[in-house]
Amino acid sequence: MAKDRAQVKPKKHCRLRVKKNDTVYVQAGKDRGSEGKVIEVNPMTNRATVQGINIVKRHRKEGKTGGGGITEMPAPIHISNLVVVCPHCKAHMRPGKKTVERRRDDQVKIVHVRQCRKCGEQLDQV
């Protein structure tokens, strides 16, 4: 018997390697071998929407404002099928972590940033 929605615990999400505005390479699926820019990331479902990847057609019914017909839009793709592309060395890699101190108004804050494993450049701005 199915549980009520109120009784179901929310799914715990994990940290993802892919962030919005990253350039990613598709490893598996119908668009294998192509690259695109990440539009949206959903950590609850472990899926990301990539520009120009996994294009699907949706049949829309015409409404009062118009807009009926067949529209093409990118559908989410699973994170495990994506690999981050380093903007500096253009290599496909799994990013590592680096600890950096950020100083602002005489305060020191420790920040974790993503780092390319091949060239050593930071992927995130501090």
Q: What characterizes the major β-sheet?
A: 6 strands, antiparallel
Number of helices: 0
Shape: extended
**Topology-level CATH name of the largest domain:** SH3 type barrels
Write out the strand line-up for the largest beta sheet, numbering strands in chain order.
6-3-2-1-7-8
Order of helices and strands: EEEEEEEEEE
Briefly summarize what is shown.
This protein is 0% helix and 43% strand.
Question: Layout of helices and strands, plus pairs?
Answer:
Layout: E1 23-26, E2 35-42, E3 47-50, E4 55-60, E5 69-74, E6 77-78, E7 82-85, E8 92-93, E9 96-104, E10 107-115
Key words describing this protein structure:
single chain; 126 residues; mainly beta; SH3 type barrels; 2 domains; two-stranded antiparallel ribbon; extended
How would you sum up this structure, described in words?
0% of the residues lie in helices and 43% in strands. The relative contact order is 0.17. The chain has strands spanning 23-26, 35-42, 47-50, 55-60, 69-74, 77-78, 82-85, 92-93, 96-104, 107-115. It has 2 domains: 12-85, SH3 type barrels, CATH 2.30.30.30; 94-126, no CATH class. It has no helices and 10 strands. A 6-stranded antiparallel beta sheet has the order 6-3-2-1-7-8, with no helix packed on it. A two-stranded antiparallel ribbon has the order 4-5. It is mainly β and 126 residues long.
